[in-house]
Design a protein that fits this description.
- With about 150 residues, the chain is mainly alpha-helical.
- The protein has a single domain, classed as Protein Binding, DinI Protein, Chain A (2-Layer Sandwich).
- Helices cover about 75% and strands about 5% of the residues.
- It is built from five helices and three strands.
- The chain has a three-stranded parallel β-sheet.
- Helix 2 packs parallel to helix 5 and helix 3 runs antiparallel to helix 4.
Length: about 150
């Protein structure tokens, strides 16, 4: 989620720089992405689910350390270590893939809602509210309403 916010902020800054000459002619909308994400029920559900899965990974690691500590011979310990390392890698990779997939879906939903609202407002440019000192039509609440209806 942190990377997502950084990406959006960077995108907004680049947009401001790139379109600064057009700002006087363009209809500008702003959206508070932090507020959108924190008020998006699916994002909250995904975040909670990912925290549970992360806790499961932590528990697996703790259990693996206990198993390794209780191994009787060096050969058993080495075999168990290899097995547990491979198992953890598989679980961690699966977790990362799920995390990427889930946040990509959220990102797509948010961007589609922003696009829909901005077209309805006839906005030529949409910026992250965190990057704008003043001005622009705030479309945050409309975006939140759309994404929570899905």
């Amino acid at each position: 989620m942190r990377v997502f916010k950084q990406f959006l902020t960077t995108l907004a800054v680049v947009s401001v720089i790139g379109f600064s000459g057009l700002a006087s002619y363009a209809e500008v909308a702003v959206v508070d992405l932090d507020k959108v994400i924190s008020n998006y029920s699916k994002a909250q559900d995904v975040s909670a689910d990912l925290k549970v899965k992360e806790a499961e990974l932590q528990k697996f690691l703790a259990d693996a350390q206990k198993q390794l500590k209780n191994a009787t011979s060096p050969v058993d310990k080495k075999n168990l270590e290899t097995k547990l390392t491979n198992e953890f890698k598989t679980k961690a990779d699966s977790f990362r893939e799920l995390q990427i997939k889930e946040w990509k879906e959220i990102e797509d939903t948010v961007f589609n809602a922003i696009d829909k609202v901005s077209k309805g407002k006839k906005a030529d440019l949409v910026l992250n509210k965190a990057s704008v000192l003043q001005g622009g039509v705030d479309i945050t609440d409309q975006v939140i309403n759309i994404i929570n209806k899905k």
